[in-house]
Design goal:
binds 6-O-phosphono-alpha-D-glucopyranose, six-stranded parallel β-sheet
Length: 492
């Protein structure tokens, strides 16, 4: 029998992720304000929980407290069950784990975001950094504890035979840990990130690289966003664990685990409806007034190194230098959500983005023309408004699991935007035919693509945009989640 808890309070379906569907801020008079969490994972999953698929009973989402305000909220609810004390969790039952602050900082900031994220997105320069010494061993031990805390909470909350869907690089050890105590569960792991090739992944200490792969192979199914990421994961298993690979199945340590593809898309009708709300329209009107008659080159990102915002701005500058005929006729609107500012690399990166935007302004700006407008804020309606106005949408990450902005932008684009898309975004495996595909390191090619986008004949851009919007809506979150559930339930 399952350990702990009453049978009736246990869930048949559980989701585990570091960031939950809700995060908290402390208002002026000290009260807790709930807001939607950010990032691709939450955008995809938050919708799903609003209407748990038929017959599944209750869905329980297990996540961590990320800030002091989150910790206060978690402590105010018995067992961290936020839904039970009336917080707006967007329809989900949410258990928020209140972990020791230092342990969480080491697991989340030092290991997950500063090490694993960098390795998976090829952000380290191997000749310069990183070096894994004693402090990394200490941080890794915290990551192991953090994963154990999740595994324990899930083991306690899961009904016999329940399905558990574990998300992302924060929780790579959970599947194997959970299987040890609860072999009755059906366990899936989904990676919202890219995966790196073995020769790069192996820069991690050998024991750590092997632990991550073995931890994930504790699942019954492994999900990825794009074919290249699943293939890279299998290559890592072959090279580092000596696993056998047959088609999409990895066999190691007496277990065979299938890697499956679920290219997450957007719910097009819902997003279009959201974009037609008065708050978005009002912001679109403000932005239109700011831009005047200028055509708009738009981007929307977290302030994130892998998003390649600096090279994007550099490309825009090259475009303006090469095409004086566009001066006074175009504006670059950059919407950036503040992200991971506990890490110095992210603070420095944000400063670099601000510096470059200011340089462009100094070089080209006039009394009557604003060549670039940078907004660092987490105003989702404002970003959505920017996307509706885009003539060219720039999505040029160094690497990205999927990049939902490419899909959201094409679905809400009123003008039939031209999509300039990095070949290293997961979305490119579906959108290459109608996007202008760029090498994200090639600034000149990106500048040329901006120019090609701005000068494309209206009929062609509308035709391409229409096809891209169709692709973007092909696998909306509910279908994406439903397909994973169906596969995990269908057995080995
Ligand atoms: C990506 C990751 C998510 C993460 C999000 C935001 O989409 O795959 O797991 O939640 O970025 O990052 P953050 O560190 O703010 O949660």
């Amino acid at each position: 029998a399952a350990p702990g808890g009453e049978r009736s309070s246990q869930a048949e379906l559980l989701v585990a992720s570091n960031r939950g569907p809700v995060s908290f801020a402390i208002g002026d008079d000290g009260e807790l304000l709930a807001r939607r969490g950010g990032g691709g994972l939450v955008s995809g999953l938050a919708q799903v929980v609003q209407d748990t698929p038929d017959g599944d009973g209750e869905l329980l989402w297990v996540c961590t407290a990320l800030s002091e305000a989150d910790r206060r909220a978690a402590r105010s609810a018995p067992g961290g069950r936020l839904d039970q004390v009336g917080f707006d969790t967007g329809g989900a039952s949410v258990k928020m784990l209140d972990l020791d602050r230092v342990l969480f900082d080491r697991a989340y900031n030092a290991v997950a975001n500063r090490t694993l994220w960098f390795v998976l997105h090829l952000l380290h320069s191997p000749s310069m950094e990183p070096s894994f010494g004693a402090s990394f061993r200490r941080d890794w031990a915290a990551y192991e504890h953090y994963n154990s805390a999740f595994a324990e909470a899930l083991a306690e909350q899961a009904a016999p035979g329940a399905c558990v869907l574990v998300q992302d690089y924060h929780l790579t050890l959970v599947p194997a840990l959970l299987r040890q105590t609860r072999p009755d569960l059906r366990i899936a792991h989904f990676s919202h990130t890219p995966w790196s090739p073995p020769e790069y992944f192996r820069m991690l200490p050998d024991s750590v690289a092997a632990a991550i792969l073995q931890g994930m192979l504790g699942a019954d199914r492994l999900g990825f966003l794009a074919p290249a990421w699943a293939a890279a994961f299998r290559d890592c298993c072959a090279e580092i664990l000596g696993a056998q690979i047959e088609g999409d199945t990895v066999s190691a340590g007496g277990r065979s685990v299938r890697t499956s593809l679920y290219p997450l898309g957007v719910d097009a009708p819902e997003l279009r409806d959201r974009a037609s709300h008065p708050d978005v329209r009002a912001r679109a009107a403000e932005l239109r007034e700011l831009a005047g008659d200028c055509r708009l080159v738009v981007r929307v990102d977290r302030t994130e190194l892998s998003k390649n915002i600096v090279r994007g701005l550099d490309a825009y500058r090259e475009f303006l230098r090469a095409h004086p005929e566009w001066h006074g006729r175009v504006m670059h609107l950059v919407c950036a959500y503040p992200s991971r500012h506990d890490l110095p690399e992210y603070r420095e990166y944000t400063a670099a983005v601000q510096r470059l935007a200011a340089e462009i302004e100094d070089e080209f700006g006039t009394d009557t023309w604003l060549p670039v407008h940078l907004e660092i804020s987490d105003d989702f309606p404002r970003s959505l408004a920017a996307m509706t106005l885009a003539d060219v949408l720039v999505v040029n990450p160094i690497r990205d699991g999927m990049n939902l902005v490419a899909k959201e932008g094409m679905v809400v684009s009123a003008e039939g935007a031209v999509l300039v898309l990095s070949r290293e975004a997961g979305a490119c495996s579906e959108m290459a035919a109608d996007a202008l595909v760029v090498n994200p390191y090639d600034v000149t090619a990106t500048a040329d693509a901006m120019y090609a986008g701005l000068t494309m004949a209206p009929a062609e851009r509308r035709a391409r945009a229409g096809r891209l919007a169709t692709v973007a809506g092909a696998l909306p979150p509910r279908a994406w989640f439903g397909a994973q559930l169906a596969e995990i339930r269908s057995g080995p």
